[in-house]
Amino acid sequence: MLCVCLCIYILNPSLLVTYNKIISPAILATFLFLLQDFLRKIFLSSEKEHRALLIDFVTNFLQICLLAYYALLQKLDLPAACWIVAITYIPSVILGIYWLRPGPIIFRNIRFAWKNHKEQSGWMFLSAIVQWLAGNFFVLAAGWWLGAAALGALRLAQYIFGLLNVVLQAVENYVLPKASLIQHSDIQFRKFLLTVWKKTILIFIPAITLLVLFSEVIMKMAGGQSYTGYSYVIYGLSVVYVVIITSLPIRIALRVKLFRSKLFYWICSICNF
Asked: How many whole angstroms from its chain centre is CA 77?
């Protein structure tokens, strides 16, 4: 975030003045979000899913209630929304730390954690950068070549598919710790991945089929009559999600087996880099 602010300062300093009221809550919200996500992953990996779900529920419930309250009072603007988002992470972070009860800080443990992080996170960072660039280039290209209306239709369709993406992320967050526990047994590991893949297909394929069949109706309900001509966007995203679902066992296996470099090359090949 400091690099982003520095780039903005160099390229367009007036933006920092325009958005000076949201910089502080944005930084605070980012820090607390990462801390809460770290706590959530600890609970998931230690098979305490109910605690991970609860800290998410606390934050989301408070955010929805406070945002709705300020909206009803007609006092909701961008700075207020950013502060609400930031502050509502605090109770869940406190609750997560209370449940975790971390011990004293020991330098040997920090050095051990840093070594593992350095060895395992490099390829994941590079794959995240590739995915981010690929996704933003796609959006930029849509706005540049197809026009603002097509870009709006694309973003609208992405929001429609956002629910599927949430479910897919939930599946991965649940499967990864389970798969890690049995990855020493190749037979059980393959059987588990196959079972998860079949169940995922049973959930996603009918949903994607319904989105394709009623694409024009969905786009009309979501954006109005003018967006019915962009129903082909849903067709394209449906194909993308079919590929994602088909490759789910491969992605999980690469992450569990710590084949970070192979995951990076695989993502690069998908994104045509």
From this structure: 25
**Which two three-digit tokens encode residue 29?**
């919200």
Rg (CA), the chain: 21
- Of 146-150, 171-175, 212-216, 260-264, which gets the smallest average pLDDT? 260-264
Give yes or no for a contact between 248 and 196, defined as CB atoms under 8 angstroms apart: yes
- pLDDT, tens only, 54-67: 999 999 999 999 99
Closest CA to 96 of 46, 138, 134, 166: 46
Decide if 57 contacts 98 (C-beta within 8 A): no
Torsion sign, CA atoms 33, 36, 42, 46: negative
Residues near 77 by beta carbon (within 8 Å), at least 6 away in sequence = none
Q: Which two tokens stand for residue 104?
A: 């004293």
Residue 175 class from Cβ within 10 Å (0-12 exposed, 13-18 middle, 19+ buried)?
Answer: buried
Question: How many C-beta atoms lie closer than 10 Å to residue 58's C-beta?
Answer: 20
Question: Residue 108, Cβ neighbours under 10 Å: how many?
Answer: 7
CA distance 255 to 76: 41
Answer yes or no: are the C-beta atoms of 69 and 85 closer than 8 Å: no
Closest CA to 227 of 121, 148, 126, 110: 148
* Chain length of the chain: 273
Q: Over the stretch 121-130, which tens digit does the pLDDT of each residue have?
A: 777 777 777 7
Please answer whether residues 109 and 116 qualify as being in contact, where contact means their C-beta atoms are separated by less than 8 angstroms.
no
Average pLDDT, stretch 240-257?
80
